[in-house]
Amino acid sequence: MLNSKISELLNRQINREFYSSYLYLDMSNYYYDNSLNGFGNWFGVQTQEEYAHAMLFIQYMQNNDAKIILDSIAKPDITYTSFKQPLDEAYKHELFISQSINEIYGVAYELKDFKTMQFLDWFVKEQGEEEKNVDDLCKRFDLFGTDAKGLYLLDTELASRTFTQPSLGL
Ligand code: OFO
What we know:
Layout: H1 4-33, H2 37-63, H3 85-110, H4 114-145, H5 148-158
The structure holds hydroxy diiron-OXO moiety.
């Protein structure tokens, strides 16, 4: 059984992970629409990862007999005006999600809910990696993506990214 405040925050996080998946799907579609299929693929993998994260939160709640409440998922509502913009928005979004995970961690810490802290450890690490990945991509876009040949090569590289199902041994 989980503390009700923790349950509430975990439910909120489920919604945020599904929204992340939806947001990145919108970004993926934007790139496919513009024939940047490598960027489309990169965000497509991101979409799958976020969906998997939501399912991990669901599994943790199921394992701890907590009530799962699925809320509506907001519509991604950004109109992109440059190829760089989704990358900047993705970076901002990852910072927001890191803060969201840290908030749950902070409450779990106050409540001495060591089990939830241990579960969240993986996400804290994952967020660090995701922030760095998107930040690197932003920087590499600034270096190479503003010239047609560089953009083509970057797009070709991003086409090789594949999805790996995360396993936390829950
Ligand atoms: Fe769910 O991993 Fe970042 O946002």
